[in-house]
Amino acid sequence: MLKNRALTPEIEEWRQIIRQHAVDCGLDFFEVLYELVDYDEMNMIASYGGFPVRYPHWRWGMQFEELQKQYSYGLAKIYELVINNDPCYAYLMRCNPLVDQKLVMAHVYGHSDFFKNNSWFAHTNRKMVDTISNHAVRIRRHIDTQGQNAVEEFIDVCLSLENLIDPHQPYFTAGESKSEETLDQARNEAQGVRFSTKPYMEEFVNPAEVLAREKEELLNKIDESELFPDEPEKDVLNFLLHHGQLRRWQRDVLSIIRDEAYYFAPQGMTKIMNEGWASYWHSNMMTQSIIDSSELIDYADHHSGTLGSSPGVLNPYKVGIELFRDIKERWDTGRHGKEWESCEDVHGKKDWDRAEDQGLKKIYEVRRTHNDITFIDEFLTPEFCDQHKMFTYKYDRQTGKYILDGREFSSIKTAFLDQLSNCGRPRIQVQDGNYGNRGELLLKHIWSGTPLKLDYATRTLENLYKLWGRPVSLETIVEGKTKILSYNGSNHAEQASA
Amino acid sequence: MRKIDPDTNRFRNIVRGKIRENLKQYVSQGELLARQGKKVVSVPLPQIDIPNFRFGESQQGGVGMGDGEEGEPIGGEGGPPGAEAGDQPGEHVIEVDVSLEELAEILGEELELPRIEPRGTESVKVEKDRYTGINRNGPESLRHFRRTFKAALRRQIASESYDPKNPKVIPIREDRRYRSWNTKQVPQSNAVIIYMMDVSGSMGNEQKDIVRIESFWLDTWLQSQYENIETRYIIHDAQAKLVDAHTFFHVRESGGTKISSAYNLAKELIQKEFSPVEWNIYPFHFSDGDNWGGDDTAQCIRLLQEDLIPASNVFCYGQVKSAYGSGQFIKDLREGVGKDEKVLVSEINSRDEILPSIKTFLGKGC
User: Fold this and answer.
1) Is ipTM strictly over 0.95?
2) Is B77's pLDDT higher than 50?
3) Would you call B71 and A65 a contact, using CB atoms and an 8 Å cutoff?
4) Which residues are CB-contacts of A144 (< 8 A; sequence separation ≥ 6)?
5) Would you identify the CATH topology of the domain B190-362?
């Protein structure tokens, strides 16, 4: 049964008004198509990651049940759902009151602007709605020939390694791996070291047999030193795609999972900014022009609901919006640059106002070029941390609880950046695709100070084995010692690194 | 049918598979008892999530916001403060709600239990109300909205007061329509489970836990087989008492054991409340098997032969091994009435033997 998802005339009227406000604010967005759905559909779409059609997989069903349960117990409710696509698709919950619909619409224009303009999204597929339904068709075709269980199990295996991609990869053309041609060139150029000398001394200073021997050694070295891959490969999935022992359909499934992972990656990298930006604009538009006085209380209630944080918890929405406000304020009043930083007069700083009025321009610039890491790195100030009572926490072994560690700016910033780096996931790369010269695979965990969850790591290795087809190993640090965890298809092993 | 239903079904199948796989563990650990709601049981399922390389949950520091002094604990009990609200999947074990019916089905599949053919279905009829018709009178809560407006529209068209350009339809009193019901007689299968347990001093907590776990699964299965099920609890030492479920599982008595007292009470109960013509009767008796003496055992056998067994679908006796060993009663029963195929006995020496015992009791399908 196809339900009517068109906006009601009243909401449609408001959509046009809000759209005009967004344009007036200077937002430059993909056109947004709103659909009105009830909570069943909303939860369904949310379970599918925002898309109307996905390939068949049990985890959508699991998410759906979870969402349905949370919704029916009143624990959680999805307010907005928007897809990075051109045009942008966004969903409104049918049962929400008008003030919520206005808020969500204003918020979504912010997201759409961010998708379109932030450079980290520049390489994402803007026809992803179509692409993802094509993925679904391809996977269904594989199900037809291979059977549902085989395909679903293989998808599980791929998903287990889904996060082993390199989100920065689209922004540079990866160095071509050394082809035979360049190796040949190196071979041709290989020759022994020839010392310059007078012609009559030539055969004594550079004897022919020594040159021949050196050349031989060099050639041997070129062939021996052939690392595989040449450089450690951060895009583990790509490496597996090209070098894993996979059948054709498996390769296709893996490439689909990888494409989707790359599509979603920028959203993980810009969570704080994206939400902050959208919240900044909805709050601007709502309070300045859209709501009427009767809606004020509800608006304030819902706005504070999304931005509020339970004690001690960092809310990315809140940090984002406040940082944008802070930046605007600072560039409006000129509280930045050398002069400001070197000023030591407390009163002077308090009343500082150079009336530069560059705030708006600055935040538009920031939303174009930054991601969460550079955003925090550049714009988090001691004043900001102070004002928002930020702190660092650590795990206390004695009590088994997390305790407040301190309020020092530099450590807050370091911890914050740590938390954001690689979206809070361990960095893992392909170190050697011919480990031990036995065609085994060695991954390396780039140590950042936090150990891996070991039971998960061993189970993930089992899945890695299924893609590689030969024994697999992971180098990481366990309890302060460098260890190599291996799985050979039947047994796990753990040994100290050589 | 919703688009997501196939995915949900796949998920439920995986859940069922996992439960079947671990059924023995769930039964012997009795984990599910505490998680029982009215109609659903929430089952903890480890290892259903997809593993990946991730940081170990503990020891990870981070940034938070809010008041507090250095060294003060933050966040909830022991858990890490959700630094990125709702972003990472939680570290808790995933729990899935499974309905009691589904659980019974899984149990049935795993133990290959036959469906029970109830006795006396034809003889017992109950009245059930079905909303089938439309009436002009009725309570407002049953008003049929669409039919009411249809009637109003029809009246307005007939009286030419309907203007298509201004389509206002206003029902008046006479237009109102209400749902009405018919009462039907439908056959119903009734069953009563009579649990009897020895609470003499030798039955310790572990023994009672075993009985409790076993009775949970027996309940679950029988409930899935009968529409209407009643449960009665009898405890006995030297005397028998009719008690509620809570008392049954928690009371602790001391003193001797006279099993015949319980059988007598069960007999009276059946005579008074549960006529075998209308009810399927399931007496389950659990004891450590130490009866007072030969006289009493003989009386028990007589009671069983003359009253309890003829009235019941099956009579089940489970002998739970206690700290003082396992008694003589099971042997006496086997000798006395063991030939009767309605008598099912099993020995439960440890929690691992609960599942086979259930299979013995329910495996006959009557």
Assistant:
1) no
2) no
3) no
4) none
5) Rossmann fold (3.40.50)
